Amino acid sequence: MPNLEKITERHVDITADQITTTPMFNQIRSQFPNSKTIALMSSDFKQLISEVIDKVTIKIHVQETPNSSLYNSSALNRQLRQHLQSYLEKVNNQLWNSLYWMLNQSRPDRLAKAINTMIYTNATNSNDFLYDSRAAKSIHKFSLAQQDIDRIEELNKRLVIHAHRKSSMESRQGVAESGESSSVPELFEMDSDDDDDDDDDRSNKNENQAQQFEQNQTMTHSINYKTQYILSRAEIENYLSELSDHVHLVDDIVLPKSINVHLINMNIPDVSNRLTTPVTSISDGRISQVRQVSSFHGIKTSGIFKVILTMNRTKPESVILIGDQLKSLVKIETSVYLGILSVQVTGGSSSSSSTRHRHVSNSTHSRSTSTQLGSSETEVLINAHHLISLKTSSMESVEISGAGINADIFELECRGFNSIYGTVHVKQLKAIIDGFSKAHLMGTANILTVTVGGSSKLHGFDLSTQIANVTIREDGYAEISCNQTITVNISDDDGEGTVKYKGTATVIRAPKSTGGTIQKID
């Protein structure tokens, strides 16, 4: 058993200077000197994180035991990501100008814009496209990477060579018509003799022939668009695949392909705003960690643990983890984004299989689930000041302690094998209880709108409502206490949905709702 007197903690301070002095950050800043938010591709984001980690200093307070592992690089990596990253999304038109792009290729949106000046639909045949070789020769004005300019010019020469060969062959066969453009069927599939066996003299000869051919076509047949060549959709797609991996043909226009990016806040907090790793304490054989979190108004959880939620404005908003093993605690990530506190397990469950079995197999109401869980269960103690939403999605059990949740509108969502027990006092309660979830709610809700699906149960006889809108799917079960109106919609499927109610409310069955059972309890 650990020494009851011993408290071990380790702090990691990440300062603004450690971030802004990295080579990667300086490269980004040099490209965007005045921008507040920058989009980074995953590879660049990982490079920035790696460089910051190399600068981080770890301070150890109080001697650790040799086998202790209170902090690891993966935890630091996660913490840095939460600190630097705003959110992850696909690049759209508004984000291209904020994208940090250091590849030796052109930025995809710029390349697509340039290509669209060379390739456009054929007005006389919507199934074909026109390729303008004259526009290809002016491609340098689009500030593309030299590699892409060279490639476009190379492909342009290859096209003209093929057009010349095609025209010569058709002339010899007596097929060509003087007023029509030539199709180029295998534009980018050169003969093996051309690719492998031609010497420099033959290559130069081909280019000279192509140049002479194009000059003649431009002077003699400009009225018939002889600098334009008809290409099929397949040929355009072939052309684009030869040119770049980052653009593609969508309908009749060339567009950049979407890529995932990390949005980075470039206004790094000053040195006094530090990130601190969890303070870990060992006492009475139980390990606890205090997680530092910013203010939040919603909670989202996913994992196998017990949540004890309190609403106390006289104490700071906080998250404390308690468990028997440190490795279970470090797997639980906590973060706040857009006011939502996220508590989730990564890399495995946080409880034993026996705990999981007790949680799932309980057939009574959710309060029993909480009380039956043993002391070995990982606990998450959350204190909030104001709460408008709570979402659980795995195998959590949630207990709302004390006076409960007070709000005008409160949203509750339970999906999975979880349970919730507690008191709410709200004007409007919106709830989704699905999977194998159980909710035992007490208190008041002027208006209740609830959907109970799967094999889930709502025990709401202790929740006083005036108006209740109840939707039951599959084998969902709901107990309602209502004094004015209950509208019930039980899906007409193979399930056996049930609604039991108390109170003086008038019951209205929704149109086309013919399944299940509605029963008044005296």
Automatic annotation (TrEMBL):
<feature type="compositionally biased region" description="Acidic residues">
    <location>
        <begin position="188"/>
        <end position="201"/>
    </location>
</feature>
<dbReference type="Pfam" id="PF10988">
    <property type="entry name" value="DUF2807"/>
</dbReference>
<protein>
    <recommendedName>
        <fullName>Putative auto-transporter adhesin head GIN domain-containing protein</fullName>
    </recommendedName>
</protein>
<feature type="domain" description="Putative auto-transporter adhesin head GIN">
    <location>
        <begin position="296"/>
        <end position="505"/>
    </location>
</feature>
<feature type="compositionally biased region" description="Low complexity">
    <location>
        <begin position="206"/>
        <end position="217"/>
    </location>
</feature>
<feature type="compositionally biased region" description="Low complexity">
    <location>
        <begin position="361"/>
        <end position="372"/>
    </location>
</feature>
<dbReference type="InterPro" id="IPR021255">
    <property type="entry name" value="DUF2807"/>
</dbReference>
<feature type="region of interest" description="Disordered">
    <location>
        <begin position="166"/>
        <end position="218"/>
    </location>
</feature>
<feature type="region of interest" description="Disordered">
    <location>
        <begin position="346"/>
        <end position="375"/>
    </location>
</feature>
